[in-house]
Each structure stands twice: as structure tokens, then as C-alpha cells.
Amino acid sequence: MTVDPISLTIYQRRLESIADEMSHVLRRTAYSPNIKERADFSCAIFDHEGNLLAQAEAIPVHLGSMPFVAKPIIKMFPNLRPGDAIVTNSPRSEFGGTHLPDITLLAPVFLDDKLSFVVANRAHHADVGGIAPGSLPAKSTEIFQEGLIIPPVRLYQSGEENSDLMRFIMENVRTPYERRGDLRAQYSSLRLGVKRLHELRDEQSDWDFGSLQKELRETSYTGTKKLLEEYGEGVGSFQDYLDNDGNGKPALIRCQVTLGGGMITFDFTGSDPETPGNCNAPLSVTTSACYYAVRLLTGRSVPTNEGCFGPVTVIAPENSIVNPSRNAATSSANTETSQRITDVILGALSNFIDLPVASQGTMNNLIIGGKHNGENWSIYETIGGGTGGGPTGEGTDAIQSHMTNTENTPVEALELAYPLRVNEYSIRVGSGGKGEKRGGNGIIREIELLDTATINIQSERRVYPPYGSHDENQGSVGKNIFKFPSPLSGDGMIINEDDGWDSSTSRVVIPNAPKGSTIRIETPGGGGWSGDEND
């Protein structure tokens, strides 16, 4: 069948609008501030084989990894029925997850009694159990410490909630009321997607959806390859370090990028072996960073779907920090390691393509939880920073970059929902790297505890600064600073006895911090850019 280009464009835009509408439903019906305020979730549509067809504008690290979960789900559940929904959060390679707080729901769409689509969403839940509130323990050494592991199972069957499974999940989390509400919001989002795809079929009954899907993928494949060809050929290598592998040592990530003939290869050979800490990145996360870099190079002119990734090859050695073994701890991979992988990829590409230098290189994960008025609570948020300057302009102040684009938690929403007070939220002036094009400035966010709570921070760029075009153009490293109402000691903390302040390491856990304690996060600035004096 010859596909009419006008029908193809309408089909593509309709799928994208359905994914966007799914996002609106999820955000408006979610219970947790992390989803309804920060928009820490993603929605996508796949074909009957699990190939990505469309996605809403959302979290790059989610959307690049979700194709890894759709295909195995379809193979694992050949007897899916209308109204079913599969739930999973497992980051193990055969299930395509990222870290345990990211829970994915997928639902089949049957047209004319045939599986035609799969709709899916992935949302970060503020707690899924484990040894620390928020389920991102800074010092976990195996996946079992990080929370409840949910292999792919049916949470909904023929439209009915699996009450036994839901009770099981609720018994293993600290905030069951919130978790139940968020999971039901995810299912509502999927139901909307199913309904809209049926309506599309009814409205366009003469369309051959299979031919349209094939042409859509081929168009994106051809478009991506053509745009990559415009960059010519090149080979570049780069390496950078994570501050701490979880065992007190830096962790090396290395990548060689080879571009030619419209094809691109990312080779991570030479990266460190998997670590005893939680910065090990599942292959789905590593591949997401590679896909993200390709989308940066090709831009919005090519529709985002499975075809975009056809020209991409990823080489990630097994049992390494970028492709770990089955039970490795992974809680900070989705947030921290993904950012460093991106920095390394862009550094390698900069050997032959003009690109901005490093952005803040961290998501500055702050997780606080405890019990207030007899009820458990947990808040998770990421904090923006500066982006890198480049040949075409200065970096941007106080914004999320690269593998996340979540929003901030508004001060009013945070203080309304939790026993916390925000004392300062401002731009960290002077933290961006210097140069002809300066780096963007970071953020200062200072929060006071109004009740006893556990503080958990996973961050990066506290030791190794965001790189600039030259050493003197580096962005400022971030700082995690604490003040306690009385002297406090703990693992990994160096207390200044005079005023109680502690400038800590990248990853820290402070159990039972007393009421009146203050957490001050100063996020990194982006690197600055200056042209080569010899040019």
C-alpha cells in the first residue's frame, strides 16, 4: 500500500496528541506532589510488537528506556485481554526498568480483536519500600535494599483491579494511600489512551494502521540517518568520573563515539566494572543516554519513534558500570549515572562537532521522610542547576538539563503537604563557569525540618566539576550543607563543632535528624566556553 504523506502526518500528530492527553490525565489525577507538581512521569504508545510509535514530551531517561520493557511484556503475556494492565518496576535487563521507584504500567489495545497497540506510562513513586524513605538509599549495595521489586504481573485483569496484588504492594511501602492513588492514576491514563485509539480507528476506518506504522518508522529512520550524514565522519573519545562509586572511590565512565555514513556507534569499553554501590546503570539507562544524544543532533524535524534509533549501535560490556549484573544496586543510575554518561557522550562528540560544554551533571536528589502526626510521609525532589555555555550562547541559570526535565516542587505545595519549611530558594550567583560564553548558575534551596525525619541525598559533581572548554572554565561544584540544632554525628559526616554546619560528600544518609535541622543544597553551575586562541 502506498501511504499518503498527508495521512501519515495526521496519524503521527494524532498519536502524539493522544500521548499528551494521557500525560494530562495522569498528572491531574495523581496523588503525590512528585507526579502532579514535578511531572516526574512519561507516557508513550507502542505498536503490537513493542516498537515505539509516539511519546509525550517528558523525561528523556524514561522514554529512551521504555521500549526495553514493552517488547518483553508482549512476549511474556501472549494472552493479554482488553482491560488488562501489566505493572513492573524491575531494572533487571530482561524487564527493561531503570530504578525501583519508577513503576511502569502497560495496557494492550485491541482493534478488530487483534492486538494493535500498547499504551504505557512510567512514573516515579515517592516510596516503594527499602531501607530508607524514598527508596533511593544513598549507600545501598544490592537491589534488595532499595525497595520492593515487582516483576511483570497483571495489576488489572479485564478492567478489574487485582486486589490481592494491590494489597501486597501496599503492605511493602511507607505511604500506601499515596501509592494506591498514583497507580490508579496511571491506569486511568492508560484507559484514556485505549479509548482515544479506538476513536481514531472509528474515525479513520479506511486507514491501514500497519502500513502507516511501518512508513512512520521508515521515515524517522531515513530522516535520522540523513541528518547524521550531514555531520560527516568522525571519531571521538572522552572520559569523566562519578564522585563516588558507593565504596569511597571515583568511578570512570569512558565512551568512544564513531559517526559515519549516517550511522553512529557508542562504545563504552574501558568504563569501570560494576561497583559495590548504587551507581550501576542498567543497559536501558545507558542506551537512553545514547538515544538522547542522537535526538539532540537530529532535532524536532524527525518524529520520535523506534525508527530514530535504527542507526544507533551501543556497545556496553557486561558486568560493568554501564551494564551491570542482575542484582547490582541501581538506585542512583537513573538520576546520576545517566547524567555522567550524557556528559561523556557529548564530550566525545565535541571532538568533531561544536557542542556546549558540561551542564550541572546531576539531578541533586533530595529525599526526606519520617512520621508526622502518626502518619508516614516521604518527599522526593530533584533540583536544577546551570547548563553549559557553547559556541552559540551562554548557559541557562537554574534549570533541569539533559536526562530530566522535571519541574520544581512549588514552595507552597511542599509546605502544605509535608512538615517542612523552605527558607531560601534562589539562584546561586557566580557558580557558572567563566569564558566568552559563561555557564549557567546553579540553585540554592534551603529546607528546614519541622519534625524529626531521615535525610537522604544522592548527588554528583561535588568533587569533579562540570567541565568547560578549558580547565579555567569549569563550573562550580555543588555543596550539600547541614545545620543541626545540637551537635550530631554519623557515618560519613564531618561536623564543624563551632556552628554545626557540615559540607558533606555526594551521597549521605542522616537518620532521625531532629526538628529544626536545615538542609542547604547549592547545585553546580554549568561549564563556561571559550574559543581556541589559535583559531
Describe the structure.
It is a single chain. The termini are far apart. It is built from ten helices and 20 strands. The chain has helices at residues 5-29, 33-36, 60-63, 67-76, 163-170, 176-203, 209-229, 283-298, 333-349, 411-417, and strands at 41-47, 52-55, 85-88, 102-111, 114-124, 153-157, 160-161, 234-242, 251-260, 263-267, 312-315, 365-372, 375-381, 420-428, 442-449, 453-458, 479-483, 502-503, 507-513, 518-522. The chain has 535 residues and is an alpha+beta fold. It has two domains: 5-219, no CATH class; 356-535, no CATH class. Strand 9 (251-260) and strand 10 form a beta hairpin.
Provide the descriptors you would attach to this structure in a database record:
2 domains; globular; alpha+beta; five-stranded antiparallel β-sheet; seven-stranded antiparallel β-sheet; 20 strands; 535 residues
Helix content: 25-40%
Number of helices: 10
Total individual domains? 2
> How far do the termini sit from each other?
53 Å
Lateral arrangement of strands in the main beta sheet: 2-1-5-4-3-6-7
Identify the overall geometry. Answer: globular
Order of helices and strands: HHEEHHEEEEEHHHEEEHEHEEHEEEEEEE
Q: Mean pLDDT score, rounded?
A: 91
The percent range for strand residues is: 15-25%
Quick one: biggest sheet? 7 strands, antiparallel
Report the C-alpha radius of gyration, rounded: 23 Å
* Uncertain stretches of 5 or more adjacent residues: 494-498
Strand tally is 20
Derived from helix and strand composition plus strand pairing, the structural class reads alpha+beta
